[in-house]
Amino acid sequence: MARKSSEGSATGGVSTSRESERKFSLGEDATLPDLVGAGRVAAVDEVVAHDMVAVYYDTADLRLAREGVTLRRREGGADDGWHLKLPVGSSTDRDELSVPLADGGEAAEGAHPTAPRALTALVTALVRVSPLGPVAELRTHREVRVLRDAEGRALAEAALDDVEVAVPSGAGEGSRGVVPGRFRELEVELLDDGDEADLDAVSDALVAGGAVLGAQVSKARRALGDPATALSDVPEPGEVGPRSTAAELVRAYTAEQVRALRRHDLGVRRGEDDAVHQMRVAARRLRSGLRVFRPLLDQAWADDLRGELAWLAGELGAARDGEVLAERLAVALEGLPAEVDAGDATRLLREHLAEQHRDGEAVARAALGSERYAALLDRLVDAATAPPTTPAAEGECREVLPPLVRRAWKKLAREVSALRMAGDDDSWHDARKTAKRVRYAAEAVAPALGKPAKRFAKQVERVTEVLGQHQDAAVAADVLNHLATDRSRALHLPRSAAAAAKVGFALGSLHAAQRAEVRVLRADLLDIWPEVSHGAHRSWLG
User: Fold this and answer.
1) Could you read off the pLDDT of 89-134 as tens digits, one per residue?
2) How many CA atoms lie within 13 A of 183 on its CB side?
3) What is the rounded CA–CA span in Å between residue 448 and residue 458?
4) Total-model pTM
5) Residue 135 — φ and ψ, nearest 5°?
6) Residue 180 in contact with residue 151, Cβ under 8 Å?
7) What pLDDT digit, counting tens, does each position of 454-508 carry?
8) Residues 441 and 433: beta-carbon distance below 8 Å
9) Where are the alpha helices (DSSP H) in 209-245?
């Protein structure tokens, strides 16, 4: 039984819990020591025994195991079913997502059932187009003891497992590292009423009793052997410095952003807050990097990949833009004067924003489930490991990179110098996009070029923040103008002329407030620009 997470849910047929546990090794004949008195433990339940059979699924090259992810079908025990276990940040905790056994696909005679789409869709960014199949079978005899406090509350459970490892029938290449055999393992897992202090106290008591704190890896990864501990498809980027080649910096930067995109892909699929925004940012950073580093790359390759990333960012855009617009207009409604009756206008806005949000989410889900996106993921993995660089990329970072950032900066300086308070919104938005490119470029080279690049990026970030707010206000004003003049919305408006006039007045007031903010933000940008553009921030560019 996994400890329920505070954000645990059971939506769409998938139940979620947070697993917080520690694993120990015991001698062949060792028994569980008396744990009464370990922290808050006041009683230990009688043993409850289970016999379980778990078949683990992965790709032929064990892409899930190499990321610390496990997908299994388990029969027997208190929680039989399909389980997907996902790492939680840098901790040893894992989220366990479960569906019933019946949710798997029907198995042909002599074959194993196919894993349920509700779980496999979540790991698309890792497996991409590769099929998932059985790679290991674990037959476990488990003896479970629940540890309780003085009030009888369940703090944790200690599960002593005797595990037999086997190669499942019909297993593919992923089973090549499996060595049939046996091992013994003790798991102590927190339950709903336990906390980390309880886990620490029980762990100390076990170690004092002869147990050895083991490697905190899953049974499946242990059973699958060395191939399951190989590097990820997109390894952590290595360190780079001024004397590193520009090619090394390009690989490191690309790997960092691809890892971020894959991480936030999972967040989008799980409905996590801000995941759409962060995934879109990763796509934009990748696209910006390909443009800035274009002289160092095969240009046709870089341009084509940039086009696919633009498509992905665009498909995520509607969902993200809806979130931003909803937040902005909620604040704007609160700021209306008391004499403005905004009740019906608020209802109209909520209907529109809810519709936009639904449509945006549908577009994003369709994109993430498409063959085009799966193909893009394959290309990004290749880009993160072996981008096609030119001979120019073999130069040292300190020599090669500053001119690339300087070129992007000059474009921004020209665009900002051409901005006018009464200019159109598009010219300000174009300057925003260029400023983001400069900021991303400076942040990209900062690992190699150090503090001067970081300080410069912080200065340019001031520009992107102001122009980002400017764009949000301009878009909000456009939406309000559209709602006020769109005849197709008439059916949603109050029937009386007086009530309709109140709606129009409220929308007009909101529109005026957004346009006023546009003017303020333009003035803010022109005020900070002399400081941002001071040559002292760019001395490192040469």
Assistant:
1) 766 788 999 999 998 877 666 678 999 999 999 999 999 989 999 9
2) 20
3) 16
4) 0.87
5) -125, -20
6) no
7) 999 999 999 999 999 999 999 999 999 988 887 555 445 556 777 778 888 889 9
8) no
9) 219-224
